Amino acid sequence: MDQVLAWGRLDWQGQGGQTWSMEFAVRPFDADDADWLVSEHATHYPMVEGFDDSFGPLVRGIVDDFLAAHDNTCEAGWIAHRGEQRLGSIFCVRQNETTAKLRLFYVVEVARGTGVAQALLDQCLGFARGAGYAGLTLWTHESHAAAGRIYTRNGLTRTHAVPVHSFGVDLVEETWEIAF
Description:
By secondary structure, this protein is α+β, with helices and mostly antiparallel strands. The chain has an eight-stranded mixed sheet, sandwiched between helices. The chain contains four helices and eight strands, in the order ββααβββαβαββ. Helix 1 runs antiparallel to helix 2. It has a single domain (6-179), classed as Gcn5-related N-acetyltransferase (GNAT) (Aminopeptidase). It has helices spanning 34-49, 55-69, 116-130, 145-153, and strands spanning 6-13, 19-28, 76-82, 85-94, 99-107, 135-141, 157-166, 169-179. A hairpin with a 2-residue loop joins strand 7 (157-166) and strand 8.
């Protein structure tokens, strides 16, 4: 049985008057989630952002490294899900002795705007604080505007932005940080 760490329900009304509901839970990431997580990243970002095929192997390496050597006392990953359907992911790993690093924050299209992203981010930030980190950092791209908005709402600040050519496209890499 999965350990449920958080859950949520959001009801909203669509443009045609229909009512929608999204119930979900957040549980710890495990090895059975690895292929799904890599596949989602390797499919979504090339389709939506034009990334080349180097992005999937990068994600695979991050996931494999986590599975092989993460420290349960200061590193964790989570999966949001509705029943058997995975809705998103987030990881908190050690950058250094005092700083956590957020990684692999992703929410599937159908779950965007439903509170799933906020629940995942709450889980990650709460874990980082509880593990004794003084702050958290993350790396992303400026094109992920929705992520930037949720980071800002949760007290993170963009501290660095630089134009780059990565994954076959021109991007602006960003670093975001928060002190606890």
